Every structure is written in structure tokens, then in C-alpha cells.
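Researcher: Good morning. I'm working through a list of sequences from a screen, and I'd like to move beyond sequence-only analysis. For each chain I'm collecting a predicted structure so we can compare shapes side by side. This is the next one on the list. No need for commentary yet; just the structure.
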Amino acid sequence: MIYAEKTNLNIEAEKKLAKDFREEWVETAAVGDRSRLLRQQPFRRVHTGFSASDTFGYGGPIFDSNKMINRLVENMEAVQATGYNYALVRFGQLIDAGGVGYARTVSEQNPRTMDENTKMVSASLAKPICAVAIMKLIEDGVLTLTEKAYPYIQSSFPDVHDSVKNITIYQLLTHTSGLSGSSTLSGFADVLRNPANPTTISSYHNANYWFLAFVIEGATGNGYIDFARSQILQPMTITDMTNQVEDSPCLYYELGEFSDGVSWDDFDTTAIGAYGWYASAIHWAKFLAYFRYDKVLSSSTRYQMLSDSNIYFGFRRWFGQERGTYYGHGGDFHNGSKGFRGGMMGFPDYVDAVLLVNNRGSFDPGDILMDAYHAAYS
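Model: Good morning. C-alpha cells for this chain:
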């Protein structure tokens, strides 16, 4: 099948999402006194000044983006991160974004402050891209959720446990395949030689998404990264996500430290089915917005992914939260105590948010985003 840009866009979604997802801002927001500034950390904050009426027909609290960002910054002050960036979207438009602290501290060569366009290694934030790519193939009739996945990778991995041959596409998407073993791509062949014990609830493992990336390559005859770029990212106007570290715009630090940052080499193209894109908060904000407004997949496919009873279906879901069900994904990548943590969240009320941090620690970016979202209604 020849893959071309999708043209049968949902008409209602076309009305809701403005033609241009704004990446440039008309003004720089004023910043009040904060302990981050007292610690002499740079703080860049920008916004469009975009607003839209709240459509809820009740007299309850109204979303306040300033309250959300203020709470996010307050929570990150407590973390004492070396640097982070964030992006906030509502009604498909970027309404706030910025960076705090350093991407490369003044102790490093080529120091630079963090901003909303600073790329960081994205770890498992990559998995929803892989899931959307699989669902694109399902919509196009190339794959089905219920078919067995192994035939698509058999030529590359002929030596597998018999139980692996029965794993379905759906089980891989939802982490219910029962794959076990190494959590690094170099150990994937060994994982396939282990017995698979399918589960009825999600049991998270990176191997599910390496498997899916290989399935995409087997089903299309294209490399995974090429397919993801041409069929998912480019239609979302995301043109410069990469598996290459480029000029190391960001280093990764131990919490509370400002020297001797670490980085990583380029990632194998198949590895980024599960982890490894280099991307900014703006990139992930775009991805969330274009997914929400059905610019690559249909609304029925989006609904299918978000209404499944499993915790994971490409995105992770948080059921029974204060304002309903939330969806998104987290990412964690490290070298000892130095590393990355990130999160992206799709909330009710047309709110999407991203937080990327060049530290690793006990803080959870998803929890920080949820707390900030709740504060927006306080």
C-alpha cells in the first residue's frame, strides 16, 4: 500500500483546531518574584494570549491557565530541578510554554538556558507514537487488532518460544502479552525465547513496543522511523523529531547538581518504538493536540484507544480522577542518578499539558501536571 497524507479529516475536528498550531508568541509574560529567580535560575515564559469561552453550562469554577502554570512552577521549585520545559494547550492552541533553569549549566562547555524548544531524550513518551502508527495501519486495513503479530517479524527472529507465536497486536498495544525479560533492545531476542504468559490486565514492558515497531517494518517494508515520520509526525507538522542527539542541546544531571552532566548516543531506529525520540515540549504538545482533534486517526479510533478497559492502550489512562479520566504517558531514562523524567497528559475540558525535566528523581511529572490541572479550577 502507498501511504499518502490523509484527506478524509473529521469535519468537526477541522472546525475546532485552528489551521496553525502556534509556535511563536506575541509577548513575553511578566514573571513575579520566585525562589527560582532568587537562586539565579533563568525563567523564560511565553504565551499567545489566546482565550476561548468555557462551554460548560454550570456555575462551577472556570479553567485558569495562570493558576495551572503557577502551581506547576511551585511544584518544580520544590523538586529543585536543574532545568525543565513545559507546554500548555487548550482547544488545540498553544496558550503557554516556557523553560526554567539550564539545559547545559554554566559549568559545561556551550552552556545554554532551557526554553520550550529545547529537545530532550523522551524515553517512553515514544510509545504513543508507535501506538498511533499501528492504529493507522489498522485503519488502512493492513493490520487487525486480533491477528497474531509474530508472522511480521518471523524472518528477523526465527528462534522464539512457541507461546510468542500466539501474541496478538492488541496484546502488545495493551501490555497484556506476558512478555518478560530484558528491558533493553539488545535483549529483545532473549525475551522472545522466554515463555509468554498473557495477562488480563496491563503488565508494562518495553518489549511490547519493540515488537510493534518490528511489526510496522514487516508490514510496510519501511523502516519504523521513516514510517512514523511520514505517516504520523509530518501530518502533525512535527518535522524535526529525531533519534539523533545532534549537538547535545541538553545534558542530564543529578537533582540539585549543576555540573558534570551526561548525555546519550543516537538511538537505534527500532528502539524508538519504545523509547528514545529527541523532542521538545512543543513537539509533544503538538502530538497531543493533533491526536485529540483526529488529524491522523479517525475519532472512532481515538475513542477506541481511550475507552479500552486496560490501563494502557498506547496511552496510559488514569481512571476515576477528580475531573474524570485522563490519558497520557510518562518517560524515565537514566545513567545512575543522572537522567530524564517527563510526562504528557490529555485532560478533560480540551486541556493538554507537557513537562520535561533533565533530572531523574522520585518526583513524577504526571502527578505534577495533574496537581497543576486541578489547581487551575481552585
